[in-house]
Amino acid sequence: MTVTGDQFIGGRSVSGAGKEFHAIEAATGNALEPAFHGGTGDDVEKAAAFAWQAFPNYRETTLEKRAGFLETIADQIIAIGDELIDRATRETGLSASHLERERTRTVGQLRLFAKEVRRGDFQELRFDPADPNRLPVPKPDLRLRNVALGPVAVFGASNFPLAFSVAGGDTASALAAGCPVIVKAHPAHPGTSELVGRAVQKAVELAGLPAGTFAMLQDSGFEVGQALVADPRIRAVGFTGSQRGGLALMKIASERKQPIPVYAEMSSINPVILFPNALRNRAEEIGKAFVSSLSLGAGQFCTNPGLVLAIDDSNLERFIASATSALSVTPEQTMLTGGICEAYKNGVAKLSGHVEVTKLSTGTANGSHQVSAALFETNGAAFLSHHALHEEVFGASSLIVRCRDENELRGVLEALEGQLTVSLHVDDGDLDAARVLVPTLEMLAGRILVNGFGTGVEVSPAMVHGGPYPATSDGRSTSVGTLAIYRFLRPVSYQDFPIDLLPPALRASLEV
Amino acid sequence: MTVTGDQFIGGRSVSGAGKEFHAIEAATGNALEPAFHGGTGDDVEKAAAFAWQAFPNYRETTLEKRAGFLETIADQIIAIGDELIDRATRETGLSASHLERERTRTVGQLRLFAKEVRRGDFQELRFDPADPNRLPVPKPDLRLRNVALGPVAVFGASNFPLAFSVAGGDTASALAAGCPVIVKAHPAHPGTSELVGRAVQKAVELAGLPAGTFAMLQDSGFEVGQALVADPRIRAVGFTGSQRGGLALMKIASERKQPIPVYAEMSSINPVILFPNALRNRAEEIGKAFVSSLSLGAGQFCTNPGLVLAIDDSNLERFIASATSALSVTPEQTMLTGGICEAYKNGVAKLSGHVEVTKLSTGTANGSHQVSAALFETNGAAFLSHHALHEEVFGASSLIVRCRDENELRGVLEALEGQLTVSLHVDDGDLDAARVLVPTLEMLAGRILVNGFGTGVEVSPAMVHGGPYPATSDGRSTSVGTLAIYRFLRPVSYQDFPIDLLPPALRASLEV
């Protein structure tokens, strides 16, 4: 398999006629071959028409057929082999071993959704029998099932070239729900996207599904994505990226004639709360583990620990000493793109120059595509009065907030915007203090962890990778884990249907 | 109990300091005593503060306590006795027997949600155990539950003074989910609202719940409602009413610093499709049943059959003859308010004057507060080219569309906006033709009925009273039936929590 610069529409490889662009090698800034061309309005129109045409058939595929399709996608991704890892490494600067793990997660995710489809619970079948003798009026027979929303637009994420891109979590959950998917590939890894896109297209063919079940469009700008979200045949959007990007899509979606849900996973600083006993017993250990989490993948995870809260005491100094020491030996890492690298450096510079902030460590010196992790500190009062300090710096930057006491720490938590995760580091003596905070944390974030860090998001039934706005656009859902399938479904009720007219899944218990 | 003109905030009766207004007797247009005063910004502020304060306690009440509270509300509503029906009859013009049935539905709804709370399934408890031996990294322990969103603003509906007002479906489902509720009473029935509000306040007291669990504000204008939706402590909105009203609230909610979900049930013309064999076998019977549904409660139901589609043939003439004959003996009915009556007359006049529309019947002559049902006809081509004909006329007005053939009928269905219900009238020979349409209908509406009409919405587990925009603001949910509880919940994941720190419901299966 070779990267050719193609898009995929209607089961065919299609050259874009839009603006030319190249993948950029993250580590060097050099352009990679071949050239890609952005899609056009006409490509969006065709892809949407194919998806709309495929929808009635695809959404009524048997559970077995749909599950098999998801498994075939996984097999086809594995079948790409080393070329996928090589290309992704060059395009993203992530290490081969990182990307191998991400590939494992990606195919595992597809297979998990296959199981979820076979289990069938997501259909939410409800049987609510008639009662002809009820007074004053007979009760009708009612049955309910979830149906797929319609074609879904999925935006590839820059930081997960496999697990949240062409065949990533949003695509897997939307396909599992019975929705055709049109992917807008992320321009930071167009070759990786093409390789995976071709694998999905192959799977569509092998499964004998309508060609419009899947499409993938390229674009280095915003036009294709915006046109996609505005298209009346698109019925939901999955997005992982910046707050600016997410808000722009939400605006387009809400101004449509028929507004549609946008599931945007946007920004989070993922507070870490260090409790006194945990700090006393394990300050050094926690400090090291914190730096490990902070610098994982150059800090380019949505669950990166960007904020550390603790009551100011001598054990916090031990944590800081341990963290700064670990940071000093953390090597520079390549960031995903020049733009992300630039934004990180700006964010770090802004913190460095902030009057209320002290720089603790910036590891080694910055290169032009490589950066080092950065650690800062401030106090609770300063944090509370400077909203700029609440903002995410995407990358391995974190801010320690020294709180005067429990009340101030609580005040800081209550002043925060919605988050994906909150981590608590506690030992036995901390449980009472932690318990008091849990209700606040439940309102703040989608996932609360004890003695761990938010990075390393498990793909499983009880995962919530979501949280109140602005962590996501819709805190009622998750983008990781099997619960994600519900984002792309809506309930339909069937009243007094003759058995022959019911969808097969709802015929089951009709026999008297 | 007597109507005093009060609001309820923080467990106390509070006089409004805003603009004075009176309830208007629907049948006569006369003002009723006593005077009401609208709430102020200060009242909104206080109610929101009380609700926010009550929230942590209320959302963690035991299932048994919360269920008992809902049942106590039902008991307290019954305990008001005849005064409730008398006042509601005067304020709404609905008949006493209609309102008695609506009261039965309202208390039944509260008791059904009590059962749903005891059952506890809405918590969505998920146990996802650790696997310390997993490679390359151990799997954490994950548990998930749904938590309540926060205080909910509920807007009383003009057309359901009991079942969708102060202690109606939105309030019942939000309270069941663990959310405190602040009701903005509908100014068309402030006295009815006060009586029910006092019953709920009494139930809060009897159940020993925090005073902020419930509040009710009055206002004849929009200020109180708008301030409520904008308040940062309000986390969701339940609304049943006009499209204009729903869209205004959606706009406020989306422009907040933290946008919140608005569940607005707005407008629907509820297409009825008459198939050829059903018409041949039962044209007269269907015609009579149609008029019964059309004129129920002066046609002021969201599920009122405002559109009839059939292939033009001689059996359709029989249906029309039967319907017009039934309409001619349908008595005039009082509408809910002068404004609604005026809007109905305007809508009917617009249809009467439309060049492509023929007036079939307007029953008896219109009075100044009483109106008669109206029936019109047009053809498929005209309907397709005049979007004004797709708009709801709130009240007992319906439009028959004569379609040339199955294709045109299908074209009409595909041109419609989202609906709450679609009804099919079929006999044996129609099933093949109906089956072909079902996928289109599933995309069009939240509920599909066979050989019935949408009015008479069952409150039960498999009901969907919802549907694609603009029937509602969010087609992924229902406002009637037990599934409505999910509108006010969001999932939270707990990772590696010590047993003592977990919410009680999630401790269950921890023991090894």
Automatic annotation (TrEMBL), chains A, B:
SUPFAM superfamilies: ALDH-like. This is Aldehyde dehydrogenase (NADP(+)). One of its GO terms (molecular function) is oxidoreductase activity, acting on the aldehyde or oxo group of donors, NAD or NADP as acceptor. It comes from the Bacteria. Keywords: Oxidoreductase, Plasmid. The keyword Oxidoreductase applies. Residues 18-409 form the Aldehyde dehydrogenase domain. The keyword rRNA-binding does not apply. Pfam families: Aldedh.
